[in-house]
Amino acid sequence: MASMRGGQGDHYFALFQPNGLIIKGFDRRFSGVHDVLQGVPNEFEGFLKEPAFIMDMTTFCTWKLQSSQEWSASKEPAVEAYELLHILTGKADYYYAWATEYYEMSLDRSLVQRIFDMESLDGEILEGLNEDLEFADLEEDIQEIGFPVKRND
């Protein structure tokens, strides 16, 4: 499962299952959009019933079954409705621009690229991204997501 909450109500939830991937989101700019959950395949029934995913606040929903080559949606919203997903699809350049603005800090663009390239997290990358963090601070997150790590101890 992956999720993002924007702090002003915007959010998305993505559930990865052996039979496919489903993503639902809410963008307050499109709050008048309805019926976006119609036609979701039965394979994702558990996702639709999960209260933590705030299903009553949904402005877009898209899915891809493992057996399909195409993404599907009950109702195709404007491309702008998927803007919340650009953080996932925009690659390192998009994330770099977003993070420097959102966190109001400078980042080394090459370190962001190394993370997107799934290069093992080492002391140099960690210190370059946040000098106040140590591996111990991230241990639980590293274990949960399985990100590759190269410790120099």
Please give a structural write-up.
It is a single chain. With 153 residues, the chain is α+β, with helices and mostly antiparallel strands. The chain folds into two domains: 2-79, no CATH class; 91-145, no CATH class. It has helices spanning 45-48, 86-89, 91-102, 109-116, 123-129, 135-145, and strands at residues 2-5, 11-17, 20-26, 60-65. The protein has a four-stranded antiparallel sheet, with no helix packed on it. A hairpin with a 2-residue loop joins strand 2 and strand 3 (20-26). The longest helix has 12 residues, at 91-102. The radius of gyration is 18 Å and the shape is globular.
Our count of helices gives 6
Radius of gyration: 18 Å
* Low-pLDDT sequence parts: none
Count of separate structural domains: 2
